[in-house]
Amino acid sequence: IARSYICLSYKNMFAANGYALADSAIKYASLAQQTNTENPTVKVTGPPINGQINYWGPGRGNFNTYRQGSYVARLMNGDDTTCFAGITDPRCWYMLSENLNGTFKGLLPWSGNSTMSNDYPKSFWRYAPQTVVGTAPNAVTYPIYPPSVATPPTSWNDSCRYLYDNTSPWPMMTASEMQFIIAEAQFRKGNKGAALTAYTNAISLNFDMLTTQYPKGVPAGKQITPAVKAAYLANPVIVPSSANLTLTHIMNQKYIALFVWGALETWVDMRKFHYIDIDPSTGKKVYAGFTPPAGANLVSTNLGQYTYRMRPRFNSEYLYNIPELTRVGAYQFPEYNTFKNWFALP
Description:
- Helix content is 31%, strand content 5%.
- It is mainly α.
- Strands 1-4 form a two-stranded antiparallel ribbon. A two-stranded antiparallel ribbon has the order 2-3.
């Protein structure tokens, strides 16, 4: 319910009904989980039963060629110049994959692996584009994830981190997310002090979730300690004064905290801000360093517009419910996926 109300926060937030949407978001987020021990998660036991293996784990083989995107990497690696400029996020070593240079980079989704180099990020399972397993004369070179191998070598699971282990629990929602909802709602109401408190709590809870539930595979010396966490939260670039808090702070830290597991909620947020809406506090985009695809990098049927909907797969309503799809414009307009959702309209 909290998600639903904050999703609607773009719609007439300051209309005659006062702050009903924001107040409702705050109310229900406050009734939801407040600590990480209350986070609902999907737990799996791992191999050999396929249905008991984390969908993102190497045992399922679903994400062998995928890599992290450049936007999240820049938010966390200090390269970003518009949001958290110059600050290396210690959560990198928990959530992202470094490259052969030992740094964190990502790919532009529309450029793929066209620029292979030592900056190319390792896979989510922590292996480089080519990995040699074993020693001569029995060494085997595996290109990313070998399609000829039905089951990855056992060693492939040894260095998996975060959500990418065969047995990693998968969050459904978290106390951190609820605090970010409160922070955004309080900010929209003009209560910047309360917004800052919730924002700080949200980051703190995300740090604690990583260190307690996802410590596996983090290299020695890269673990988040209480001192490391305190230093990050004390940095005014990350946690400013209440007067200097912006939607950019809130939404980009939420983007980090929900990375991968909360992708659909992140997409709701980004569509709510129409991807490129301006933060009135800064005059810059809310998602400050985010540049959506344009021109030839957009599929031609988008007609130059951003995507707001997913077209159902072929074996769906496009086979058995054509009259209703026609009524809403989903059948006769190839750009239907660009029609704005109700929550993204004024």
